[in-house]
Structures are given as structure tokens and as C-alpha cells.
Write a structure and sequence with these properties.
This protein has 229 residues and is of the alpha/beta class. 27% of the residues lie in helices and 13% in strands. It has one domain (31-215): Glutaredoxin (3-Layer(aba) Sandwich), CATH 3.40.30.10. It is built from six helices and seven strands, in the order ααβαβαβαββαββ.
């Protein structure tokens, strides 16, 4: 049976409508969905609970991508832990472990070796990788108390304290001057056949955000793009 060009167009349109929509990654200014995270004790840690302090009031959160086997994490985790201690009364600062095959036992052993006390949130399903288009460890995500992503990029670089600058801006009710920077670190492992790719993404020049928190827009650098050296 010949459908002719009109029939072919109709069938193509129906196929497009039936295909599942591809979710876009969350960029600065976008609302962060619940990521299905769990803690070291195996219990669920909903995003809304993370964004509430002991007093029940809203607080920001900083998630830094980390794992027990990554050399980049070993180099940065002391600075991240010091940062967490500095802001422990004003924000939730946690390691986010999205690597395939990670366990609480492996994470605890890595922390104990460096004598670090840091909360670790596990993303076994890789929801955060998909939600933010994450590629590398030591990537920081700063989320304000209303659940809006305000910064996505490397934790720091030389004298640039990107994550801390973003957090202090959020705490002070100000715009985040630099909302995105290039990711740089070990590649996140979601495929058991592909080990870490160290230094997978070279740093790129940070670019300022051009919008206010209430109607924030991502800066020109896209977190999920491959970065050029």
C-alpha cells in the first residue's frame, strides 16, 4: 500500500509525537529536581531536606562531585573540607559520589585515610550526571535555599574561589558574578568498561553571569560542552 507524501509526513509527525522528550540539563537559574540521593547510612536524603537547616529555615547547599578513587579528589578534598567547616552553620556542603560501583565502605575508607569528616551523598542511578550534564569530579554545584541552581563549575582554580564566591553571593542575597566555569578533573565513571580519564576537561576562562537570581540565565559557557585547552 502506497501512502504518498502526505501519508509519509503524517506518519513521521506521529513518530515524533510518540518519542519521549529528551530532558534538558539544569543550568544556572533553573530549578533543581530531587536527585534520589542517599547518605553513608543508606537512608534517602531528599533535596528539600538538604535545603533546610536544623532550625527549619531554608539554607543553600554546595555539592562537590567526588569519589574514593579519583586523584583529582585527593588533591582538592582538604580544601573542600576546610570550606565545609567554614560554612557549616550557614550551608550544607557535601561530597556527591556518582561513580558506578562506589559504596559507603569505600567512601568511609577514603575519608578515614585523610582524616576527613565530610557528608557523602550517593547517586547510584546517575541522576545528577543526567540532570546537570556532569562530566568531571571536583565539579561544584551551588544551589540556593529555594532549590535554584546558582553555580556549576570547578570548585576553585589557583586564586579563584568560584564555589565560595557563588555561595557568599547567595548568602548575601546578591547576584552570582560567575555562574559557570569549565569542569576539570577525573571523568565520572558510569560505564564499568571505561576507567577514569584523568584531566578529561581542561579549564576554560570563566565567564560572568548576566542575570539576577530571580530570573537567572546561564552564562555563555555551557557546563556540558567539551572544553578546549
Amino acid at each position: 500500500m502506497r501512502l504518498g507524501w502526505a501519508g509519509a509526513v503524517l506518519m513521521s509527525a506521529c513518530a515524533l509525537l510518540a518519542a519521549p522528550a529528551r530532558a534538558e540539563t539544569v543550568k544556572p537559574g533553573g530549578k533543581v529536581p530531587d536527585l534520589g540521593l542517599t547518605g553513608l547510612d543508606g537512608k534517602s536524603v531528599p533535596l528539600d531536606a538538604l535545603l533546610k537547616g536544623d532550625d527549619g529555615k531554608a539554607r543553600p547547599a554546595v555539592l562537590v562531585v567526588w569519589c574514593s578513587t579519583c586523584p583529582s579528589c585527593r588533591m582538592a578534598e582538604d580544601r573542600i573540607a576546610a570550606f565545609a567547616g567554614k560554612y557549616k552553620d550557614r550551608a550544607a556542603v557535601c561530597f556527591l559520589d556518582a561513580n558506578l560501583g562506589e559504596t559507603p565502605e569505600k567512601a568511609k575508607a577514603a575519608l578515614a585515610k585523610k582524616k576527613l569528616e565530610m557528608p557523602v551523598l550517593f547517586d547510584a542511578a546517575g541522576a545528577s550526571v543526567n540532570a546537570f550534564g556532569l562530566s568531571c569530579t571536583t565539579t561544584a554545584l551551588v544551589i540556593d535555599g529555594s532549590g535554584v541552581l546558582r553555580y556549576h563549575g570547578r570548585f576553585d582554580q589557583n586564586d579563584n574561589r568560584y564555589a565560595e564566591d557563588a555561595l557568599t553571593a547567595v548568602l548575601d542575597g546578591k547576584d552570582v558574578a560567575v555562574a559557570t566555569t569549565a569542569e576539570a578533573g577525573c571523568g565520572i565513571v558510569r560505564d564499568a568498561s571505561k576507567p577514569h580519564a584523568h584531566g578529561a576537561h581542561a579549564p576554560a576562562e570563566a565567564k560572568p553571569a548576566d542575570a539576577k537570581p530571580a530570573e537567572a540565565k546561564p552564562s555563555e559557557a555551557k557546563p556540558s560542552e567539551a572544553k578546549k585547552e
